[in-house]
Amino acid sequence: MHFRKIEEFGNLEMSYISDLSRGFISRNTNLFKNLEMNRFTQFLLEKCVYGTPIFKLGNGGNRILILSGVHGNELPPQIANVKLLNSLLFEDLRNTLYIIPFASPKSTMNNERTFNGMDLNRSAHINDSLSNLIVREVENLGIDFVGDFHSTAFNANPGCEAIFTSKSPSAESYLMANYISRDVGSEIISFDYAGSSYKGAVEDVCNLNGIPAITCEVLCPFGNVGKGTAERSFAQMNSFVSYFG
Description:
Structural class: alpha/beta
Order of helices and strands: EEHHEEHEHHEEHEHEH
Strand order of the largest sheet: 1-2-3-5-4-6-9-7-8
Shape: globular
Helix content: 25-40%
Strand content: 15-25%
Radius of gyration: 16 Å
């Protein structure tokens, strides 16, 4: 993967995970009307027309991925991740941050949970699925920690604001979840071993590959943006980043 520097935005670099997932984010009016529009946000949305962009900020320290949009109809984390990226553009960072605001622009455009009929959070272990491509780049880039951000509805799993984690084989996943839970109050849902409940989540595949990872959820109806929900997701993201100083 080749990153190119975007001179207009400080030390920002970008590349692409895939060009098969391209989409017009602005067609999702529920999401689009909640984005803070500025030159960078406009730039980001333009890049989604060509696929799944990944951004890099900083050098040195831990390599950390902040991911959202694995489910295209879970809108608050995607809005929060755009806000986070905007807030960090010109900061002097101690660590290296990789940020994927829209894992599947096509799914987000259509306000759909799946990508071409595939649930990306049940297929990260399937070769050449879009989420598998993300996991492979996590490994290729030497990323040390992964935070995957989602939302959940009242009648869905887990149906409450929570952090999914596991105690094994990547024990630090549990420590990260505890830190965020104490910081912002999200409930912890912990499993003894990654992937023991179901297969194919980005979080679980990363943990099984020795890369500590968590999944953070906020409570919001699918396809919509409830009052304060993007702010709750943003708080989870900030807490995740602050864990690493």
